[in-house]
Design brief:
Layout (H helix, E strand, L loop, with lengths): L2 E2 L5 H6 L1 H14 L4 E3 L2 E5 L2 H15 L5 H7 L16 E4 L3 E5 H14 L8 E4 L10 H11 L1 H14 L2 E3 L6 H8 L6 E4 L13 E4 L2 H8 L4 E4 L2 E8 L8 H12 L7 E6 L8 H10 L7 E3 L4 H9 L3 H9 L11 E2 L1 E6 L6 E3 L7 E3 H11 L5 E7 L6 H16 L7 E5 L3 H9 L2 H7 L2 E3 L22 E5 L15 E5 L2 H10 L11 E2 L5 E2 L21 E2 L34 E11 L18 E2 L4 E2 L2 E2 L6 E2 L1 H10 L4 E4 L12 H8 L2 E6 L4 H9 L3 E5 L13 E5 L10 E6 L5 E7 L4 H9 L2 H8 L1
């Protein structure tokens, strides 16, 4: 049953839609041009075009629009002719800009180079944040990463200069924090090659995580395809207070919707409770929306966003957004596909985990639940920061908790790490004393990078396989995610809760009711944290870590790719579809769980992580030609050398977190033709299609159990491959028996052309 938006000012309702649109038109004519960012003074915010497209679509659909619909449909390539049906049609969109993190940017830029185009068509940036391993501390870890990854950084810097892409050097900070500080603004449509790109929704942006090949399309000036999203409304009432934080909103939502509940949808927050959340708090909520499978999440424009824009040097954008504020909120009476309601007055601090971000527990319950399930109560490490929770407010609230402990003579019982989200945050919290407080309580400040959040953590305090508990303010906590130890029980909470647990050293400490013992034996309770939303002084920008593309263009520049590199290689086109069915594909691996990352270009810490159902081993499979066991890429390479194409069989939500292009490019390069699973994570499914692979799903998920690790599989029906028409498979077992069943797909006509051409890039070249 449809529910309705209630988040439009009473004055707007009284004036009516017509009057509001007249005001917008007048404002458009009166306003001067405003640059999208200080780094791109000749690229301008274009609310006029956004408004024009929104009016066209609203008239066509004859109904009010949600905020996400306004921004998405406002960027249609053809708003007059585009078929629009939520959850069904594919939209052709014109995003405003592209952002790439360094692990994915390698493949994206290699593909862009192959396109033969001289410059990117939209403002684009590269951010060096994924390849810095946390080991002994920020400065030394950064220096080590610069040395180990020199060839990658040189390639990205030189490619950026040649093709007009801004380059944020290692040490700049995490891509999503840099975007929030510099590039996100209300109404912008941004795509980023990382699954937590939705962080920008905290500034009223539609920011969507994609694969590198999608980024190449946009950088090449080609319309970008997105399946028309459904819209889930989350109505917030009441007000945040006490120990309850913005993080608790998304922890609660994740518990309600689960890791698959947002699939194919944009989550749109609205209601009177929104105004009690800071801009960076809204970004936290949108960031972790990736964990419920959402396409992205977004908040409506309000005074908290305006203040943040002004404090980050973008007052001109804030003024422009004020003039067009009704364009940047949902229409009165708009319909959501489903609705979740949360009363912030009643919301309590939460902690989610272990092993999945949707296992939600109120802090009051976690101790008893842990004892019941045999989860270790001792907290070994508390980790705060990351792209999800590293704002000035986050660091201030954590420091507020730490200062109370220090005043009572206490330090952390657990190890404690702090990851600043950006150089600007690092410099500002150092200036304002937060870093000293967090250090004095026992914390170690890591580099401005992703670090342990993505597994870039050289952890040495426990042995592999040793059962232990860590608590983080990160977003993901899947098995072995942070430290490659499958026995680590990782829990996700707000930074202030993580800080309190690191001080107490035990998971069953609830700071709302429990007492700590001071150095003098006195019992005391921690007071709820308090901190400024933004610094009283201006932000300290810290070191200048941005490389502008040369003003004169890069036509005379050379891209730096070492001929002896084991991580970078200029791409050769993949072979076209031969015209027949795929016969007798060897099963490479039958995967248990969601994870599969092939990462030869990303570095030694981001390699293959999938679990083989045959032996529960990671990166250990049987070579069916030799009978010996080896690593997944090694066996795949051997099959390719012997002319044997292969297939992977996977579980639910396969590819979760694998926005990296390597996860699709490398299997294609090594002879893979097909991936058959129960369900896909959105970005990974698209990546596979772009590389000419066949991502297919079991029509009956129970057919997964019929497949054995040594089977051979044939894919039938490719001669009549068409949208909505299932393919069939014949599974040949080693004992001579067979199974046959149907396989579904989500290919549209354009994507089928990618498959037939061998890849989307091949098809792009055919059309040039």
């Amino acid at each position: 049953m449809a529910t309705y938006c209630l988040t439009v000012a009473r004055l707007q309702l009284a004036l009516g839609q017509g009057v509001r649109r007249l005001h917008v038109s007048a404002a458009f004519n009166a306003k001067a041009k405003v640059s999208m960012s200080r780094f791109e003074p000749s690229n301008f915010v274009n609310y006029e075009k956004l408004n024009e497209n929104v009016n066209i679509v609203r008239k066509r659909l004859n109904r009010p629009l949600t905020l996400s619909e306004k921004i998405v449909y406002g960027h249609l390539d053809d708003p007059v002719g585009q078929d629009i049906a939520r959850g069904r049609t594919y939209l052709r969109l014109r995003p405003d800009r592209v952002a790439m993190q360094d692990a994915t940017a390698q493949m994206a830029m290699l593909q862009f180079i192959s396109s033969g185009l001289p410059q990117v068509a939209v403002p684009s940036t590269i951010h060096c944040d994924h390849l810095i391993e946390a080991q002994i501390g920020g400065a030394k870890d950064l220096a080590r990463a610069k040395d180990i990854n020199a060839e990658v950084y040189n390639f990205l810097a030189s490619a950026g200069a040649k093709y007009g892409v801004g380059f944020w050097k290692p040490g700049s900070g995490i891509i999503h924090q840099i975007i929030l500080e510099n590039y996100a603004y209300p109404g912008v449509l941004l795509i980023g090659t990382d699954s937590h790109t939705p962080n920008g929704g905290g500034l009223g942006s539609i920011c969507i995580g994609v694969g590198g090949a999608d980024a190449v399309d946009v950088m090449a000036g080609i319309p970008w395809e997105l399946k028309c999203p459904n819209v889930i409304g989350v109505k917030l009432t009441g007000k945040l207070s006490g120990w309850t934080s913005p993080k608790d909103v998304i922890l609660k939502v994740a518990g309600i919707l689960t890791v698959k509940g947002g699939t194919g949808a944009i989550v749109e927050y609205h209601g009177p409770g929104v105004d009690s959340i800071s801009c960076t708090g809204m970004a936290t909520i949108c960031n972790m929306g990736a964990e419920i499978g959402a396409t992205t999440s977004v908040f409506p424009y309000n005074h908290r966003m305006k203040t943040y824009l002004e404090k980050t040097g973008r007052g001109d954008i804030a003024a422009l957004a004020d003039d067009y504020a009704d364009l940047l909120v949902p229409d009165a009476g708009c319909e959501y596909d489903s609705m979740v309601e949360i009363n912030l007055d009643e919301l309590k601090p939460h902690i989610n985990g272990p092993f999945t971000p949707d296992l939600a527990h109120p802090m009051a319950d976690i101790g008893a639940t842990a004892v019941k399930n045999g989860w270790p109560l001792q907290v070994k490490v508390g980790l705060i920061g990351s792209c999800t929770n590293s704002s000035y407010e986050d660091m201030g609230r954590s420091a507020s908790v730490a200062k109370q402990a220090l005043d009572k003579g206490l330090k952390c019982k657990a190890a404690f790490t702090i990851t600043p989200g950006s150089e600007q945050i690092r410099a500002t919290i150092e200036r304002d004393g937060y870093s000293k407080i967090l250090g004095d309580v026992g914390g170690m400040v890591l580099a401005n990078a992703c670090g342990p959040c993505i597994g870039q953590w050289d952890r040495r305090d426990v042995k592999k396989g040793e059962k232990n508990t860590i608590v983080t303010s990160y977003n993901r906590n899947f098995t072995a995610r942070n430290d490659a130890n499958p026995a680590t029980h990782a829990f996700v909470a707000s930074p202030e809760i993580v800080t309190a647990l690191a001080i107490a050293g035990t998971l069953d400490f609830n700071p709302e009711v429990d007492y700590l013992t001071a150095a003098n034996g006195e019992k005391f309770k921690l007071k709820p944290p308090s901190a400024d939303e933004l610094p009283k002084l201006d932000f300290d920008p810290g070191q200048d870590t941005y490389q502008h593309p040369p003003a004169e263009g890069g036509s005379k520049l050379r891209v730096d790719v070492s001929p002896t590199s084991t991580r970078l290689q200029l791409l050769e086109p993949f072979d076209k579809w031969a015209g027949g069915d795929l016969e007798d594909l060897q099963i490479l691996i039958k995967v248990s769980g969601q994870r599969i990352i092939w990462g030869f270009a990303a570095g030694p810490w981001l390699k293959f992580r999938a679990v083989n159902i045959e032996n529960d081993g990671v990166n250990k499979i049987k070579n069916q030609l030799t009978g010996e066991y080896g690593g997944v890429p090694d066996v795949a390479r051997h099959y390719k050398a012997n002319g044997l194409s292969w297939v992977v069989v996977g579980d639910d939500n396969y590819g979760e977190g694998s926005s990296r292009e390597h996860a699709a490019l490398e299997p294609r390069h090594l002879g893979g033709r097909c991936i058959i699973v129960k369900s896909f994570a959105r970005i990974h499914e698209t990546n596979l299609k772009k590389q000419g692979m066949l991502p297919l799903t079991f029509q009956n998920p129970a057919d997964y159990d019929k497949i054995r690790p040594d089977d051979k599989i044939s894919i039938k029906g490719l001669a009549t491959f068409a949208p909505g028409k299932p393919l069939s498979t014949v599974v040949k077992h080693s004992d001579g028996t067979k199974d046959e069943f149907q396989l579904n797909h989500t290919f549209n006509e354009t994507q089928i052309e990618w498959f037939q051409a061998g890849s989307a890039l091949n098809r792009m070249k055919e059309l040039q």
